[in-house]
Amino acid sequence: MFDFLKHFAMTKAEDVQTGFMQMLVQFDPEGASEAEIGQLDEALTKITRQMVVAKNDYDRELKEAQEIKKNYDLRVTAAERLQAQMDQAADPAGKAAIEASLAKLVADLEDMLPKVEREAKQADEAKSYYEDLSSAVKTASERLKTARANLSDAQRRMNSAQLQAQKAAEQEDRAKMLAGITKQAGAMGTALESMTKRAEELETQAAAHREKAALLAPPKNDEDPLIAQALKEAAGEKPTETVSLADRLAALKK
Q1: Residues of the chain with pLDDT > 90: what percent?
Q2: CA of 157: how far to CAs of 133, 151, 154, 170, 172, in Å?
Q3: Rounded to whole angstroms, how far apart are CA atoms 11 and 155?
Q4: 199 versus 55: which is more confidently predicted?
Q5: How many other β-carbons are positioned within 10 Å of the β-carbon of residue 187?
């Protein structure tokens, strides 16, 4: 069960690595956007955690492989000593006892050998996996730094271009000062023309009002008396009786 879980975890980690490697291959530091940089940075964080786990697994596997190899080598040395003792033994009984111990130790070594080889293989696999992740992390980090630097350079270039454009516009405005004054004068001329036109309109309106007022006003005293009398009669007014100067003086004496 432990081996199954171990291999399952390794498989999932390899899936993460495969997806990360595909992203890394497609990543273009020269034209990377902020979103792409953020996406790779997030994936890099995950794969870096996997690398740390892989390093710990490798250290553990290496230690286990070294320990079992050390025990194996110790038993091999012990077996060689027993072999030498058995070869030098003169007593048949003692030689038989040494041979029995040697047989038991050799059997243990034969049973132990596959485990030594398996531990060594697992340590090699863990090392290879860790090194692959380490290389991928290093490559991604370099590409991220390059992409970030390119993006920062592009941002600085854009800001610089904006400042230069603003300065150039200001210089152009100063260079066009005379043209601007001429343009203003032309605008003033246009305003004068508008005001003149408006004055003419108002004068025309005033003339119309005066004409209307003249038509509506009663006749003046200096007009023709016959016309004036005819207008009064037409308006229903009674004719005024003419009084002589003598009558007016007589009235004053009274």
Answers
A1: 17
A2: 35, 10, 5, 20, 22
A3: 41
A4: 55
A5: 10
* 152 close to 70: Cβ distance less than 8 angstroms: no
- Report d(CA 190, CA 200) in Å as an integer: 15
The first and second tokens of residue 27, run together, are 């990543």
Asked whether 140 and 44 are in contact (CB, 8 A), the reply is yes
> Considering all CA atoms of the chain, what is the largest pairwise distance in Å, rounded to the nearest integer?
201
Q: How far apart are CA 111 and CA 34, in angstroms?
A: 58
- Decide if 24 contacts 138 (C-beta within 8 A): no
**Of the ranges 33-47, 78-92, 226-240, which one carries the lowest mean pLDDT score?**
226-240
Nearest CA to 48 out of 174, 177, 147, 137 is that of: 137
Sort 89 into a burial class: Cβ within 10 Å, 0-12 / 13-18 / 19+: middle
CA terminus-to-terminus distance, the chain: 155
pLDDT in tens, 128-186: 989 988 888 888 888 788 777 776 666 666 667 777 777 777 777 777 666 665 555 45
Dihedral sign for Cα 15, 18, 20, 26, please.
Answer: negative
Neighbours of 170 (CB within 10 A): 10
Please give the single-letter amino acid code of residue 27: F
- Which pLDDT score is estimated for 1? 34
Going from the C-alpha of 13 to that of each of 45, 56, 121, 233, the distances in angstroms are 14, 14, 19, 122
At 21, list the tokens.
């490697």
